[in-house]
Specification:
Length: 389
């Protein structure tokens, strides 16, 4: 199939580097003013970027194992976003360096005087934490490398065998993806409250990750379509599917969130309910209500009509909305560990999301400069273009 790749304009790089540098300056200032607060802000940003990178790799695997064709013309967008994963090796370093500011279980004196933390010490210790993080990141990067390499080699060689190889890799990766994502969610977020536990926490972060990945895919795909960087054969039915899945996974997120709340509140066990008490007192109560409205109620009402899912402007707006909602969700999960009594927000928090968005734009532009935006050699591409509801 003939497709001529069109280079993205230079302003994309300027915007990306502008956001990245501005965010970096504000981040440095935030660390200089209040190191501990900045560490929690940094962790929020780190988990948001990880959601985009790891979630996008999950979408690639999902396409292969499900045999979906409608998403094939857009898969390269997810591949570019998954390129965040190698960068996470660098971005995780500040988290490791600042562990003592984030995790109370890193303090030997606290552990010595706490029977619960002593019982969890074989798992919650610095050495094992770093080892788990390194292993998970390495596993993700290895699967990313092989899945993306096969996809990109297919552009020039057009060999169906690459698709078969990726189907096998995706089948292996999917359960590993779920396990490793759960490990990181527990280690980097739930262990901020080492006395609290939830058996559904990994699924909760998984659901938010899929919402973020589909939102990023939708936003970038709409922008590329508006700029005529995608094939003219891509129609509104394709974008309807994106909007529908963004809507569906957001309902799944709400279902998991409510399930966790209902089970723990109904059991009324102090070890489980104290976290909910924290986020339902003082100014955290306002954030909790805002999260319900921003992440579920408003998207549910707005994305329900079919007309919205085929309206590119509205779909683009809702994709941005959901990415912001996911950031708010991570803020709600992480920042109460910094201050139980007050939901802090000021200029210190602004630089971190700006830096994160800048990183995404710069990496995407770098990948788009070297690789076709559409996987032109994929045997499913023709069926993808012909997709209709």
């Amino acid at each position: 199939m003939e497709f001529h790749n069109k280079a993205l304009p230079g302003k994309v790089s300027r915007i990306g580097f502008g956001l990245l540098i501005t965010g970096l300056i504000l981040m440095v200032a935030a660390f200089a003013l209040d190191y501990r607060r900045a560490m929690f802000d940094y962790l929020t940003m780190f988990m948001w970027l990880l959601s985009l990178g790891l979630g996008s790799l999950g979408l690639i695997a999902l396409e292969y194992i499900s045999g979906a064709t409608w998403s094939t013309p857009f898969r390269r967008v997810s591949e570019f976003l998954a390129s965040l994963l190698p960068v996470m090796f660098l971005l995780v370093i500040p988290v490791v360096v600042g562990m003592k500011e984030l995790f109370v279980w890193t303090d030997p004196q606290v552990v010595k005087s706490d029977a619960v933390l002593q019982g969890k010490e074989p798992y919650l210790n610095t050495t094992f934490f770093i080892a788990r993080a390194a292993i998970c990141l390495l596993i993700w990067v290895v699967f990313y490398f092989f899945l993306v390499r096969n996809s990109q080699k297919q552009d020039s060689e057009s060999i169906p065998q690459y698709t078969k190889s990726n189907i096998r890799l995706s089948a292996i990766f999917t359960p590993i993806f779920m396990v490793t994502l759960t490990i990181i969610a527990i280690d980097f977020m739930m262990s901020l409250f080492p006395h609290w536990y939830s058996t559904i926490y990994g699924v909760y972060y998984f659901s938010g990750t899929l919402v973020a990945a589909y939102s990023a895919l939708t936003l970038i795909s709409v922008l590329l379509k508006e700029g005529n960087y995608l094939s003219s054969r891509i129609n509104n039915d394709h974008f309807y599917s994106m909007g529908m899945l963004m809507f569906a996974f957001n309902i799944f997120w709400a279902y998991i969130a409510f399930s966790q709340l209902l089970l723990q509140w109904y059991a009324d066990i102090p070890e489980e309910t104290f976290w909910y008490i924290i986020i339902w007192e003082h100014s955290w109560k306002v954030v909790s209500i805002a999260l319900f409205l921003v992440h579920f109620a408003i998207p549910f009402l707005v994305l329900m009509p079919r007309s919205v899912k085929t309206n590119l402007k509205k779909l683009k707006f809702m994709a941005i909305w959901m990415l912001v909602a996911h950031y708010l969700d991570l803020y709600w999960l992480i920042m109460p560990a910094y201050d139980h009594h007050s939901a802090v927000f000021g200029w210190q928090e602004i630089g971190f999301p700006l830096f994160a968005v800048g990183v995404v734009i710069v990496i995407f532009k770098m990948k788009a400069r070297k690789t076709n935006i559409i996987p032109v050699g994929d045997p499913k591409l023709e069926s993808g273009f012909n997709f209709h509801l």
